[in-house]
Structures are given as structure tokens and as C-alpha cells.
Write a structure and sequence with these properties.
157 residues; mainly alpha; 6 helices; globular
Length: 157
């Protein structure tokens, strides 16, 4: 029921809630579905954190990012094609249903001084481009992009 509520309220749900939903789905064995929620939360958290440098959730988003990327790396070992599909779905959903950053401000004085409102749309586009680039890397390099740097260095050539 909680996941249905989140899905139905996706426009107003905090990105950390989306990532927590993804983590819970992963721990309950719904690993494919969890990737979608992790990526959707990631995209939105990255956008909000970069706009609102003084927002108290920035540290929370960073913490969830570290956990989410650990889960994605673990999952990617045998499922890189599913990761590509779920990332693509998250990007498509986010493009069709973009966030309104004002809904996530603790107060109106939170941070308009950092990124002027007229630049938000372009900034959101730039954040999404990071994930489109990740999609292309997944297609070109598969699992290797999710390996630890130490493993990459020790692989035979």
C-alpha cells in the first residue's frame, strides 16, 4: 500500500523517500523494481541538492546516494541490461513529470541566491544529461563501469 501511495504521489514525494522505497524493495527481493525507484530518487535528489546548497536535506541526499550506488553496483554484476532499462524508465518518467523545486524548500529564503529560478530548467536538463551519459556508458561498457577501481587495475589486459 505504501508503494502505491508513493507511485501515485510521485510529484510531491521527497527524493529520499523514493530512494528508501527502492532500498526496501531491494531488501524484500524486488530487485528489478528497486532500480527504478533508486534512479528516480537519485535524479531528483541530485537536482534539488545542487539547487539548494543550504537545504538540510543535501547531506541526507548524499548519504542515500552512497547507499544507493552500493546497491546498484551489487545488482549490476549480473543485471546490467535491467539497470539500463530501469534507468531509462526513470529518466522518461522524470522528463514527463518534472519536479517543482519550490515544493521542496523549507522556506522561501532557502537558496534562490545560488541558482536563479530562470536557470532551473536548464540546470535540471544538465542533471538529467549526467544520467543519459551513464546510460550510454552502460551500453558501451556493461558491467565494467560498476566495478571497483581496484578490480579494474588488477584485471589482465
Amino acid at each position: 500500500m505504501a508503494y502505491k501511495y508513493i507511485a501515485d504521489s510521485i510529484f510531491t514525494i521527497e527524493p529520499d523517500i523514493l530512494m528508501m522505497a527502492g532500498m526496501m524493495l531491494y531488501s524484500k527481493g524486488y530487485k528489478d523494481s528497486s532500480m527504478y525507484w533508486l534512479f528516480l530518487g537519485e535524479i531528483r535528489a541530485r537536482f534539488l541538492a545542487s539547487l539548494y546548497n543550504e537545504n538540510s536535506n543535501t547531506a541526507l541526499y548524499s548519504s542515500f546516494h552512497a547507499i544507493a550506488m552500493g546497491i546498484v553496483k551489487e545488482y549490476a554484476k549480473n543485471n546490467v541490461q535491467v539497470i539500463y532499462i530501469k534507468l531509462n524508465q526513470a529518466l522518461e518518467n522524470d522528463s514527463l513529470n518534472p519536479l517543482n523545486p519550490l515544493e521542496f524548500l523549507d522556506s522561501l529564503s532557502d537558496t534562490s541566491q545560488y541558482i536563479p529560478r530562470q536557470e532551473w530548467k536548464q540546470h535540471y536538463y544538465n542533471v538529467r544529461q549526467t544520467y543519459y551519459h551513464l546510460e550510454q556508458e552502460i551500453l558501451q561498457n556493461g558491467n565494467s563501469i560498476f566495478e571497483d577501481d581496484n578490480k579494474k587495475k588488477t584485471k589482465p589486459k
